[in-house]
Each structure stands twice: as C-alpha cells, then as structure tokens.
C-alpha cells in the first residue's frame, strides 16, 4: 500500500481495513449470487451479466489521471491517491499552483529539438565562448526533463510499492496491472478475450514492404545498438523470459567480457589489456569455444571450429553481433 508519511499516515490503515471489508463483502456477495443463481436457474436464461450482479470495480475505468493511484472504496466508489503527483481533485485532474507554472514553462520538445539542431552560427558562437560548458549542461538537463519519470509498478501488485521500484529482476511497468475483477481484460473496454500475441505481432510488426532507413543509417548501427544495450537490457533465462538480468544496472562492459569473473578470465589474454584471439588467413577473429572453455549457445549444426567464444553466450547466433565482437578485438 502506498503510504504518505508526510501526512498523518492513516491512509494505510484505512486502506487495509477497506481491503478486508471488500473481501468480506465480495465473499458474501458471491455466496448470495450463487444462491440466487441456483434459485433462478432454468427460469430466466442468460440475460446481460452486468445487470443486477455485483457492481464493476470503478478502478476498471482508470479514473485517476496524472499517475494518481486508484483505490476501491466499498463496492462502487473509489478514491484517487494524488500524493506527489502535483495534482488534486477526485481524479487528480486539477493542477496545483506549481504544476501549473511548471507546465506553462515546460518547453515543447519539438521546439527544443529544432533550436538544438538548427542555427549553426549561434552554436558556433556558443562553442567558442566560456558559455559552452554551462549551456551544454543545461541542454542535457532540459532534454532529460522532457522524459516523464513516473513511479513504477510491477505485474504482481496494483499499488505502488518498494519492490516494484527496487527489484530490478522484474520488468517494471508504468501503468498498474488491470484489477482482477474487471469485465474485460483491458478494464471495461474491448473484447472479452485478448488477441493472440503471434497474430498481433504479425499484424503490427511484420514488414511487407522494404523501406530504406529514413535517416540514411545502416544495419551496422542497429547491431551496434543491440550489442551495446545488451549490457543492461538482458533477459534472465534462468528465472524466466519476463525477468531482466540487470545486475550492473548500467554500462558494465558485460557484452565484451561476460557476466562473471570466471568468463572474463577465460576470454582475456591477460596481456596488454587485450582479449584472446585467433588468426585465420591473416585475419584476427575471436577464439574458439574449444580453446577457451567458455559456454556459448550455437545451433547443433555449427562445426566446432566456427563456434567463437564471445562475452555474451547468445551473440554467436547473430552475424552482426559476432561482427562487433570481432571488430572490438582491435581495441579490447
Ligand atoms: C472523474 O472521472 C470519472 C470517470 O472518468 C468521471 O465520470 C467524473 O466526472 C470525474 N470527476 C471529476 C470531478 O472530474
Ligand atoms: C567546439 O570547439 C572546440 C574547441 O574549443 C572544437 O574542437 C570543436 O570542433 C568545436 N565543435 C564544433 C561542433 O564546432
Ligand atoms: C525480486 O523478484 C523476484 C521474482 O519475484 C523474487 O524471486 C526476488 O526474491 C525479488 N528480490 C527482492 C530483493 O525482492
């Protein structure tokens, strides 16, 4: 439960009691519905489920705005916890004084981007003066402030909690999970069944027509991004595909040296700060798995001498990632 310790702290207690009360009410209503169902069975058939049966949890409508947290009160009322959202009112929709000022002064991202990417003469002047460091610091802050930084949830709880914030093994989410007693899987709207994920992916992601990259970049950049971000966006296959293995919480060069000291020592030459390598026809490549005893994942048909040992055990599966591992041998 989300507690505001700057307030009286009674928010938590009330909510716990409300939660218990809800459970008691829900148990008794479901007992009553069952008795009624037995009684009426065969006399009336299959009317609209919603009429007469228990009221829909109002939080299924997602009434709270601006990251307010919805709490069900009794059966058909709710309360939005607007703590620290900068807004107030029944639905956290009315800005407080400072939020109003902040919203007013907040630069439009497109305008900021236009100014930063045009007026070369202006930036040349800025670059030539002592203003540069101060202004670049400001530019970075302005840019990072454009990204909203809301409190986070995880799939387990529909309220803000410390674990969702701190447990980096969970994929975090910025919207609370749908309350469990909603009529539709998306709350109150949409079909009663979620679409098949494969069908959805095909409809939304499958490319039917070749479209050249609009900024004129190439495949190497895509692979570079994948290679680099794998340091912190990495699935923890031991626990499950929904968990992230972000042990270092940032840039830790695990994509080059591996996640453990053991792996790192097997990959390093331990001389001149370089990694182990092999030379084939005068060209430098990563060493083989057999040579280094580093575990890698390759399809069964890949011959022994083509199984290259790289920091990340799945990188051998994609040519672009192997390419970067090979290129980096010149530096690392
Ligand atoms: C709060 O949201 C609900 C549902 O969206 C709406 O019916 C109600 O009018 C809103 N109340 C206020 C005070 O904005
Ligand atoms: C900014 O100034 C530095 C020298 O102070 C120069 O090396 C750099 O190329 C300049 N940057 C641009 C984009 O002109
Ligand atoms: C993080 O979440 C995982 C998965 O639910 C759990 O096994 C683990 O104990 C949690 N760790 C902490 C520090 O809460």
UniProtKB/TrEMBL annotation:
Gene3D superfamilies, alphabetized: Haem peroxidase domain superfamily, animal type, Laminin
Keyword Endoplasmic reticulum: yes
EC number: 1.14.99.1
Keywords: Dioxygenase, Disulfide bond, EGF-like domain, Endoplasmic reticulum, Fatty acid biosynthesis, Fatty acid metabolism, Glycoprotein, Heme, Iron, Lipid biosynthesis, Lipid metabolism, Membrane, Metal-binding, Microsome, Oxidoreductase, Peroxidase, Prostaglandin biosynthesis, Prostaglandin metabolism, Signal
Binding site for substrate: 143
One annotated Gene Ontology cellular component of this protein: neuron projection
PROSITE patterns linked: EGF_3, PEROXIDASE_3
Disulfide bond in keyword set: yes
GO molecular function terms noted in the UniProt entry: heme binding; metal ion binding; oxidoreductase activity, acting on single donors with incorporation of molecular oxygen, incorporation of two atoms of oxygen; peroxidase activity; prostaglandin-endoperoxide synthase activity
Cofactor: heme b
Pathway stated in the Swiss-Prot or TrEMBL entry: Lipid metabolism; prostaglandin biosynthesis
First and last residue of the signal peptide: 1-47
Gene Ontology biological-process entries: cyclooxygenase pathway; response to oxidative stress
InterPro entries: EGF (IPR000742), Haem_peroxidase_animal (IPR019791), Haem_peroxidase_sf (IPR010255), Haem_peroxidase_sf_animal (IPR037120), Oxylipin_biosynth_metab (IPR050783)
Subcellular location: Endoplasmic reticulum membrane; Microsome membrane
Catalysis: reaction(s): (9Z,12Z)-octadecadienoate + AH2 + O2 = (9S)-hydroxy-(10E,12Z)-octadecadienoate + A + H2O; (9Z,12Z)-octadecadienoate + AH2 + O2 = (13S)-hydroxy-(9Z,11E)-octadecadienoate + A + H2O; (9Z,12Z)-octadecadienoate + AH2 + O2 = (9R)-hydroxy-(10E,12Z)-octadecadienoate + A + H2O; (9Z,12Z)-octadecadienoate + AH2 + O2 = (13R)-hydroxy-(9Z,11E)-octadecadienoate + A + H2O
Main location, first listed in the record: endoplasmic reticulum
Subunit-structure text: Homodimer.
Family as reported in the entry's similarity comment: Belongs to the prostaglandin G/H synthase family.
Protein name: Prostaglandin G/H synthase 1
Organism: Anguilla anguilla
